[in-house]
Amino acid sequence: MTDLPANVRWQLWIVAFGFFMQALDTTIVNTALPSMAQSLGESPLHMHMVIVAYVLTVAVMLPASGWLADKVGVRNVFFTAIVLFTAGSLFCARAETLNGLVMARVLQGVGGAMMVPVGRLTVMKIVPRAQYMAAMTFVTLPGQVGPLLGPALGGMLVEYASWHWIFLINLPVGIIGAIATLWLMPNYKMQTRRFDLVGFFLLAAGMATLTLALDGQKGLGISTLSLAGLVAIGVISILWYLWHARDNDRALFSLSLFRNTTYRLGLLGSFVGRIGSGMLPFMTPVFLQIGLGFSPFHAGLMMIPMVLGSMGMKRIVVQVVNALGYRRVLVASTLGLALVSLLFMAVALLGWYYVLPLVLFCQGMINSIRFSSMNTLTLKDLPDEQASSGNSLLSMIMQLSMSVGVTIAGLLLGMYGQHHLTADSPVVHQVFLYTYLSMAVIIALPAIVFARVPDDTSKNVVLRRRKRSEP
């Protein structure tokens, strides 16, 4: 039972502010996708690219974030990230076509690539490793205000103003965040080695081309030959990087990271686990609006119980993991999330709308403990000299898997819904039913990986909340 110094707590609050910005933007965008599609004259089946463009850009740019933070300081990088993210929000609001919106989301992604991971790296630098899980819980809890406000605020703005305001709302938040960063955050630096530019381009090319190829010919509108070319470039790039990193101490991500059993299993589990989890924030508001006919504001309100469940679980997640162990928690939460996803679909199709908030509350609780456990399991046994590299690789894998998840969700909707998906379609419920059944299988599969997690050898430290009587 320990307390962190007051100055460290202030620094953690600044990191939480960055989490707030990104979380607010993500949840607002998810709720507004059907309205965006109607405004831009696009099919809802194509709107997943608005999310994929952002998270894929984050994944591609992440490998440079850790090196930049060490080289020029976490404060400088964090400030630049907020500025780029805010500028991207302005361009999103001014976009008049889907392509223009996607390009603006790419700029946002460049900022996002430095914001949250550099914040997470800052936490690793300022707190002892035994307190890392509790400190990250402390940081992400204030950031939950973003998801709490996002769905309802986004729905209200879309319904009573226009979807452009979901991006304009980021402007004052970004200005406040930039000022707070310059004023309060120390500029931590570390000695750096030469940046592996070759490895960076190889990984970037591999991730981008394979994720885009996953969208298929219908999504990209390209020929079979071009699609095969994308796959070939992606596979060759990844294999080339593995050859490049072999016995290379200057590689972007050393292959020695994978000698750590806990890190290797945690990274694989995080990738496959977040593919399934990444589908849900995209699918839920789309299903509520197109499948059930909810208004944007009503759909946004329905997302709040999920956030409340997540917030409530974060207060006890450390105790739960200490009591049950990582393996049991991860296997149970993975299978539980698949079952709750099916329950959500069943309750909705039966018309029991009053039960939906309770189901979404449970989904938020399960997702929260799953994410916290996956993140800390992966990093907890890394030595200090590998912490920065391991954290950057984990952050990249997290974003890449969410990008893949959203892409697969869009692919499933397109496969079962063919070319059109509208609220008045006679088969709309059937399309979503088949999609959710497929998603449940994908969500449950990572339990096979988590079942191999070894027994815990240490306990996580619980941070005691400061009493009101204390100075």
TrEMBL record:
It is found in: Cell membrane. Its main location: membrane. This is Putative multidrug resistance protein MdtD. The keyword Cell cycle does not apply. Residues 11-458 form the Major facilitator superfamily (MFS) profile domain. Keywords: Cell inner membrane, Cell membrane, Membrane, Transmembrane, Transmembrane helix, Transport. It is a multi-pass membrane protein. The keyword Cell membrane applies. CDD domains: MFS_LmrB_MDR_like (cd17503). The chain crosses the membrane at residues 12-33, 45-64, 76-96, 102-123, 135-157, 163-185, 197-214, 220-243, 263-280, 286-308, 329-348, 354-372, 393-416, 431-451. It comes from Leclercia tamurae. Belongs to the major facilitator superfamily. TCR/Tet family.
